[in-house]
């Protein structure tokens, strides 16, 4: 899609600027990942119509807009309302175009924006969070954002911010977690229990952002343990049980990732996960079925009790039916292995008991 390049002359805070160097592109693919900065999600101090009336058709060219906006973020000099307007403008300028994000970071915006995230004014905090998120969409900015101390303020906003601030904090932490060395730091900052809570109590967008962030963070064993201990299996099971939630796949991937944690298997069972997983094998999409099979296989591998439970739930017929489809490779092997386990739980129990008695 061709980008639109508009030269617009306008007045901001009684100063005139030309933004011919600032390109807007609403089709930015970066937001297809987080989908976190949407038009109209803010209630600006002045309406969009009023802002448009401020635009002028004659003014001299100037590239001073971004540095000027950054200067207005100084809390020791300017009022909260001025900071809000400046942060909102930075958020809009950084919304779509990587070049803008780089220029804003170069102008020194990151540290003052992070300071806004710690503001007691929730609206100002929200503007700061979203601007930092937008800047984090540019890979060149992520290290600077992290080294400037963004993680703890983002976790604070995740805990006590507005719904939008919480969602955008989750997405900003997701962006930072793409730096491998930051995964543990983010986990130790207290983010994971808050992300689990957002997964359980947030709206659809919040659940999606939280699940994606948790999936990224839980590539670390330490964070996997934190997630399980934070009660993640309950919302995961609930979301997987709700085929209308559009969260079955995402939740399944997160649950499958956590199966390497010893206590995860018993927790899934305790939260009523077995009938949910069996139902997915029966009526889910092909991908959902394969995820469910992978989880069930890991639950059943070391427990005859769980094998019996899964078999009694009626898992074998849909597994056999699944095997009749055009499955190949590792997915087919997992189905065959799970069927084998479920068909012979008693024989395997006897074998295990015999091995145990011989070792005594």
From TrEMBL:
PROSITE patterns to which the protein is assigned, alphabetical: ARM_REPEAT
Matching InterPro entries: ARM-like, ARM-type_fold, ARM_PUB, Armadillo
Ranges: ARM repeats: 64-108, 108-150
Keyword Repeat part of the UniProt annotation: yes
Keywords recorded for this protein, A-Z: Repeat, Ubl conjugation pathway
Region (Disordered): 34-58
Transmembrane segments: none
Domain spans labelled U-box: 83-344
Keyword Repeat on entry: yes
Name of the molecule in the record: U-box domain-containing protein
């Amino acid at each position: 899609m061709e980008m639109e390049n508009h030269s617009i002359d306008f007045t901001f805070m009684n100063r005139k600027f030309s933004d011919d160097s600032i390109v807007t592109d609403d089709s930015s693919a970066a937001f297809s990942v987080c989908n976190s900065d949407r038009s109209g999600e803010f209630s600006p101090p002045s309406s969009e119509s009023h802002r448009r009336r401020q635009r002028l058709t004659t003014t001299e060219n100037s590239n001073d807009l971004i540095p000027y906006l950054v200067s207005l973020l100084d809390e020791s000099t300017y009022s909260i309302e001025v900071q809000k307007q400046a942060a909102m403008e930075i958020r809009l300028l950084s919304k779509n175009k990587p070049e803008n994000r780089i220029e804003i970071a170069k102008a020194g915006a990151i540290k003052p924006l992070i300071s806004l995230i710690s503001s007691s004014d929730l609206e100002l905090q929200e503007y700061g969070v979203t601007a930092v998120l937008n800047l984090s969409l540019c890979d060149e900015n992520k290290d600077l954002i992290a080294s400037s101390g963004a993680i703890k303020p983002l976790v604070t906003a995740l805990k006590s911010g507005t719904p939008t601030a919480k969602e955008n904090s989750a997405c900003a932490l997701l962006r930072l977690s793409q730096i491998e060395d930051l995964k543990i730091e983010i986990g130790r900052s207290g983010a994971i229990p808050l992300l689990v809570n957002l997964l359980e109590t947030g709206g659809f967008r919040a659940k999606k952002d939280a699940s994606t962030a948790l999936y990224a963070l839980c590539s670390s064993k330490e964070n996997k343990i934190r997630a399980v201990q934070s009660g993640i299996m309950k919302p995961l099971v609930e979301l997987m049980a709700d085929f209308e939630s559009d969260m079955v796949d995402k939740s399944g991937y997160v649950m499958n990732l956590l199966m390497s944690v010893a206590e995860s298997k018993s927790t899934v069972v305790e939260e009523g996960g077995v009938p949910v997983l069996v139902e997915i094998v029966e009526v889910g999409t092909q991908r959902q079925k394969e995820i469910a099979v992978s989880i069930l296989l890991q639950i059943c591998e070391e427990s005859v009790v769980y094998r019996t439970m899964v078999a009694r739930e009626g898992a074998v017929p849909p597994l056999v039916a699944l095997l009749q489809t055009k499955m190949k490779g590792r997915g087919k092997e997992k189905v065959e292995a799970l069927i084998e386990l479920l068909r012979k739980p008693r024989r395997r129990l006897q074998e295990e008991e015999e091995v145990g008695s011989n070792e005594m």
